[in-house]
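Take a careful look at the protein record below. Let me know whether the structure tokens fit the sequence:
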Amino acid sequence: MAALWPFTESDDEGRALAEAFNAALRDQGHPDQPVDHRWGGADPERTRILATELVAARPPVIFAYLNAQLSAVATATRTIPIVFVGASDPVGFGYVESLQRPGGNITGFTLYEAPLGGKWVAALKEAVPSIRRVTLLSNPSTEIRGKNLYAEPFRSTAAALGIEPTVVKVEKTADIDPVIADLARQGHGGLIVAPGTFSEANGDRIVALTTRNTIPTVFAIRRFAYRGGLMSYGPDPTEAVRRAAAYVGRILRGENPATLPVQAPTKFDFIVNLKSARGMGVDISSALLAQADEIVE
């Protein structure tokens, strides 16, 4: 079988997730099943080429992590079973007919759902009560028919909390700097980084820029809270990858992906980086800290 990842081969997070996938597959009774891991990073063209190569090799199952990778593989085959992690609205994207009965060659596990847009704003407001404006940073690859999945709950929650919301689409790394510079210039602003291949690849840069400009930031992807972001709230990717491996095991034993329901995350983690908060002069309340699953000091 084969797997397509949104990381470079040297990325520690990517390697850890790949090993978690391998271990879960062994636990499913497939200790000798080889897995051809491919690493596309955030490069759309490289991802497309790798997807084409994987499909040409005719593996029994392909695993795709995140939407850009799923899109590349799904475009290349309608017959090879595909198990995904990370397509937030697989029905909206047209990957499956319904969540309960996918009906084709694709099934898997969502990671991020629309209501998270509101939860990220609420967490930021509770952490920094003086915040007046917030920007949601996203990439077009995560949009569904030109619409941002998180925008509506993001805007409605911000409005209810008296915060001015802005949704900004960035397509390349160079687009990030002016967004953060504008927030720094206006003052009393915060940033929310929507999940996806782009933010996986550029999260460290965003952490560095927001730290330098003292902009409180909430990430969907947990590793960036460990690396200096103020907070993260989102699903546990390791758990999702393990659950996906269980589906792969079932397909390898003859089950049909068309009848395996798409499932949502069961475990979400809220992580607060107290060291970063102190560096920004942000006094996180004891009530908010009590909600954290983990505090980085």
